[in-house]
Design a protein that fits this description.
Structural class: mainly alpha
Number of strands: 0
Oligomer: single chain
Radius of gyration: 19 Å
Number of domains: 1
Shape: elongated
Length: 185
């Protein structure tokens, strides 16, 4: 019988925590659970921040978060799961980037943290307390890590790039006021 070490326990906790949070966020989008708005409400939001079509974008984000999070928590198909979740977090970070880094100001801190954790898990692997290990790592081969991360990076770049163009086109030609108008009495 093999003894599990601190690394395996640490990876299990990181997978369960990160995967659980992502799965819950995705369930908000897909099903309206945990106070979420479901596909309709999330789709409208996605459309309002430049991801079009909104409902398809909500579905893709929800599946990446729910599926990626669940698979990470289980330690199954870890490279693909981590990459999918990281792609969703990159999309979320793009929305929050204009607000700066810190989450208290609406920034991208939270999305970046989850994204980095998922990439770290994709690269490191799930540890021995995982379904990948139990199944002989058939869905967690070394070559799968760069392949999954590269495919996700390419897809995310296309989606976020299209969103950026939509947002810029909306604001093109509009100028913000240079000075605050003061009401005179």
């Amino acid at each position: 019988m093999t003894c599990y070490d601190r690394r395996d326990l640490g990876l299990l906790l990181l997978r369960l925590g990160t995967g659980g949070v992502l799965a819950a966020h995705g369930a908000q989008k897909l099903f309206g659970w945990f106070g979420g708005h479901g596909l309709e409400g999330t789709g409208q939001f996605m459309e309002s921040v430049g991801y079009a079509p909104g409902k398809a974008s909500a579905t893709a984000a929800g599946l990446a978060e729910t599926g990626g999070g669940t698979l990470l928590a289980l330690g199954l198909a870890t490279p693909a799961a981590g990459a999918a979740a990281a792609g969703a977090m990159a999309g979320a970070a793009a929305v929050h980037a204009p607000n700066g880094f810190f989450a208290q100001a609406g920034g991208y801190e939270y999305a970046a943290t989850l994204g980095l954790a998922t990439v770290g898990l994709a690269i490191t692997g799930p540890g021995r307390l995982s379904l990948d290990h139990a199944l002989g790592h058939v869905l967690n081969r070394g070559w799968m890590v760069p392949a999954a991360l590269a495919a996700t990076a390419a897809g995310t770049a296309v989606v976020v790039g299209a969103r950026t163009r939509r947002v810029r086109a909306k604001t093109e030609g509009k100028q913000e006021a240079l000075f605050d108008e003061v009401e005179q009495s």
